[in-house]
Design brief:
Blueprint lengths: L1 E11 L2 H30 L7 H13 L11 H19 L16 E4 L6 E3 L4 E4 L3 E5 L8 E10 L2 E11 L10 E6 L5 E3 L4 E2 L4 H17 L6 H35 L2 E5 L3 H4 L14 H14 L1 H15 L2 E5 L24 E3 L6 E3 H19 L36
Parallel strand pairs: 8-11, 11-12
Antiparallel strand pairs: 1-5, 1-7, 2-6, 3-4, 4-5, 6-7, 8-9, 9-10, 13-14
C-alpha cells in the first residue's frame, strides 16, 4: 500500500536566501496574476481559453522579454507550477467546486513549489535541505522524514519561512487495533459529544484571543497604511492569528489521533459548514433577521474547526484501517432512540431532550450521537441510503436489518460523562 505524507518544518535561511525566497514568491505571484488577467481579457473578447501548454509557451516569452527579464532569475519549475495551480483553480470553478480565481496580493499566502524530486536534496543528519537557486538551507528537523521525496513547497507565514516535503512510501495494509464504533455529534457548547456519553470541551482559541486581537487591529487601523509603524502593527496581528491557528490545529490533531486509535468505525454528521456559517446580513432591499446573533453563531462554528476535524479523522482512520461514515444530520437530536418518536417538542431547550411519547430524558447532544451511530450502523450493515430514512422503530423500521447502538469505551482525551 502506497502512502503519501507531508512533513512540514521551519526554515532558518540567512539574509541572502530570505531575499531570494521573497523574489521567487513575488515572481510566482506575478505570473499567476498576469495569466489570470490574460484569461479574463480573452474571455471578454470571446476567444478560447489558453491551456497549460499555451501558458507555458507564453512564460518562455515573458522570461526572455526585456520588460520581465527578472523572471529568469527565478527557477522555472515553480513558475510552471503556478500556472498549473491557475489551471486547477479554473477547473474547480467550472466544476462548481470553488469560486472564480482571484488575483494574488503581496504578503498573502506567499509560496512556491519545487515539483522535481531530483533537484531536491535532504540531509537529515545535518538538518538541512538543498533547493535549486537557494542552495543548502538550515531547517528545524523536529521529526524524521519517512519515504522518498516527491516535491517541496516553500511558504511564508507570519514572518517565518516553512518547507513542506511530500514523500511516498510503501506500508503494510493497516489492520485496526480497535473494534468499537462511536457516533460523534459536534456542537458549539460541546465541541464533540460521543455516543457513550463522554464529550470534549471546546478549545475556542479565537475567543480567548479575541479581545487582544481587536485591540491590535484597532491600533493598526490608526496607522498610515503601508508605513513602518503600520507594518509593525500588522506583524503583531499576524502573530496572534498564527497563534490561534496553531492552537486549534494542535487540539484537533490530539483529539482525532486519540479517536482513530480507540475506534474502528466513527460516524459523524455530513454537515455543510460553508452553508451553516453564511452571513444573515442580507441586502439593502431585503435585510436579514437576527444578524448579530447569527454572526456570533457563525464565529463560534468557524472557531471549532468542524471541517478540519472531519478531514483529519478521515485520513487518520484510513491509516489505522478504520472507517469514517458521514450520515445526514436531519432530526438527529429530535429523534428518540427508544421509541423512534420524531418531534420538535422533544427538544424544548438547547441541551435538554425529553421524549413526548416515552419520556426518555438526556442531553440533546448525547441523544444525537446515539442516533448518528445508529444511522452509521445501518449504512455499514446494508449500505442503506439514510437521506430519507425514518428513525428505526418496530413497526416502521428504516431497514430490514437494524444494528443496535452499543456503548463504546471512552478515549483518554475525553471528558467524563455528565
Amino acid at each position: 500500500m502506497q502512502r503519501l505524507q507531508a512533513f512540514k518544518y521551519e526554515l532558518r535561511p540567512d539574509g541572502q536566501q530570505e531575499r531570494q525566497m521573497r523574489r521567487f514568491a513575488g515572481s510566482c505571484r506575478f505570473v499567476f496574476n498576469k495569466a489570470l488577467a490574460l484569461h479574463k481579457e480573452r474571455y471578454e473578447r470571446g476567444q478560447k481559453k489558453l491551456g497549460y501548454a499555451g501558458l507555458c509557451k507564453l512564460l518562455t516569452e515573458w522570461r526572455g522579454s526585456m520588460e520581465t527579464a527578472w523572471l529568469a532569475d527565478a527557477p522555472v519549475h515553480p513558475l510552471q507550477q503556478t500556472l498549473k495551480d491557475l489551471e486547477r483553480a479554473y477547473s474547480n470553478f467550472f466544476a462548481k467546486r470553488a469560486a472564480f480565481p482571484r488575483f494574488k496580493k503581496k504578503g498573502q499566502r506567499d509560496s512556491f513549489r519545487y515539483p522535481d524530486a531530483k533537484q531536491i536534496k535532504l540531509d537529515q543528519a545535518s538538518s538541512r535541505i538543498f533547493l535549486p537557486k537557494l542552495g543548502w538551507l538550515r531547517l528545524r528537523l523536529s521529526r524524521p522524514v519517512l519515504g522518498s521525496l516527491c516535491n517541496a513547497t516553500v511558504s511564508l507565514s507570519s514572518g517565518k519561512w516553512f518547507v513542506s516535503i511530500q514523500t511516498e512510501r510503501e506500508v503494510e495494509p493497516p489492520i485496526p487495533q480497535a473494534s468499537s464504533a462511536v457516533g460523534i455529534d459536534v456542537g458549539v457548547a460541546r465541541f464533540a459529544t460521543f455516543s457513550d456519553g463522554s464529550y470534549l470541551e471546546p478549545l475556542a482559541s479565537f475567543k480567548k484571543h479575541e479581545a487582544r486581537l481587536r485591540r491590535y487591529q484597532r491600533a493598526m487601523s490608526r496607522k498610515t497604511k503601508f508605513s513602518s509603524n503600520w507594518k509593525k502593527s500588522k506583524a503583531k496581528v499576524q502573530r496572534i492569528h498564527t497563534r490561534i491557528g496553531n492552537a486549534r490545529r494542535d487540539y484537533l490533531h490530539k483529539a482525532t489521533t486519540a479517536i482513530s486509535q480507540n475506534h474502528a468505525m466513527v460516524v459523524i454528521e455530513d454537515l455543510q459548514v460553508r452553508n451553516m456559517s453564511k452571513s444573515a446580513k442580507g441586502s439593502a432591499e431585503q435585510p436579514g433577521n437576527n444578524v448579530r446573533a447569527k454572526s456570533g453563531l457563525n464565529k463560534a462554528i468557524l472557531d471549532q474547526g468542524w471541517f478540519e476535524f472531519r478531514r483529519q479523522l478521515e485520513y487518520k482512520l484510513a491509516w489505522k484501517g478504520g472507517m469514517l461514515i458521514a450520515v445526514p444530520p436531519h432530526n438527529t437530536s429530535r429523534t428518540c432512540p427508544e421509541c423512534g418518536c420524531v418531534s420538535a417538542d422533544n427538544r424544548r431547550a438547547q441541551a435538554v431532550f425529553r421524549c413526548v411519547e416515552c419520556g426518555r430524558e438526556g442531553h440533546a447532544d448525547h441523544i444525537g450521537a446515539i442516533n448518528i451511530l445508529a444511522r452509521g450502523h445501518r449504512v455499514a450493515a446494508c449500505g442503506e441510503d439514510v437521506s430519507r430514512a425514518r428513525p428505526a422503530r418496530a413497526k416502521r423500521a428504516a431497514s430490514v436489518k437494524q444494528e443496535p447502538a452499543e456503548a463504546t469505551p471512552s478515549s483518554h482525551v475525553l471528558v467524563g460523562a455528565p
